[in-house]
Amino acid sequence: METEGQNRQWHLIRNDNGEWISDEYAVILQPLEDVSLKARAIRQKKPLNIQRNGGLSWCYKHEFEAIDRSDPEPKFRDLKLNKSGNKHIDLDKIFSEYFKRLPKMLGEE
Amino acid sequence: MEREISEIYHFNHSDYDEKGRSIKDGLPFREHVRDFERDFHARHSCEYALNFYSNSKTMVLLEKSCDAAPFLSYGMDLTQGTTFDAEEDPRINHEIDKHSKKIIVYGIDSAYMTEFDEYGYPIIDENKAIFPLTLLVDNTMRDNEVRLAVPTLGGGDETEEVNIDVPKPEYA
Fold this sequence. Notes:
Chain A has helices at residues 33-44, 61-66, 91-106; strands at 12-14, 19-22, 26-29, 51-53, 56-60. Chain A is α+β, with helices and mostly antiparallel strands. Chain B is α/β, with parallel strands linked by helices. Mean pLDDT of chain B is 86; it is low at 155-166. Classes of the chains: A alpha+beta, B alpha/beta. The A-B interface holds A 1-2, 5-6, 8, 10, 12, 14, 17-22, 25, 49, 52-56, 60, 62 and B 50-51, 66-69, 71-72, 86-87, 90-91, 94, 97, 103-109, 113, 117, 119-122, 131-134. Strand 2 of chain A pairs antiparallel with strand 6 (107-108) of chain B, so a sheet runs across the interface.
């Protein structure tokens, strides 16, 4: 099956399942757009099957249109390790303790 | 319309479950169609099957065996008789597609599309004429048969066919 013909304004695009459909039902996604779209789809509990084919990311047009893209993206929260703020981790102490125990662990003592 | 070299393969619908898997060996119907494609090439060594014809019921079996998404519908309807018209059929089906609740799947990867580029996209070998298998619905066909075909130039074609005597597989 050839993918182009006379007076044809549409082409075939392949999905991840090896199925060839009209590219009019595909929405090509920009880099990182697929990530934000997926996040929205999960929040809105909408299906979204992103296809990654031929170096492109795309999704089905009907799924794209079903997602409310005006839904604002969540702000990232600061990561806190404990209530009092970041805890200082003494790496020197940890490693020195480890190397002291290493010979025992290896059965050399 | 083009003339075609074709072969008919037989199978039994009752050998498959509701997911298109063989009750006997668990293989999907799609895998058996790949065997048909290989047999076709073995019989017509210079050719690879390009067109897959079956009736609606068999097309649905193929669809299920490929785990197709529910919004996809396999196969173009034939609009110019019982042979694929590569100009009119895609054009007309494309118009039908716009008004259909489902998205038409015009073809699936051929059994011989085994090489992929760096993006994981199958390489279409135009020199060997290995293209996706075009799916065509012919409701004049019986439930237990599929037809594989490749267009031929007909009279004056200088291509020499070498037919190899290979037992035709049947999944009865």
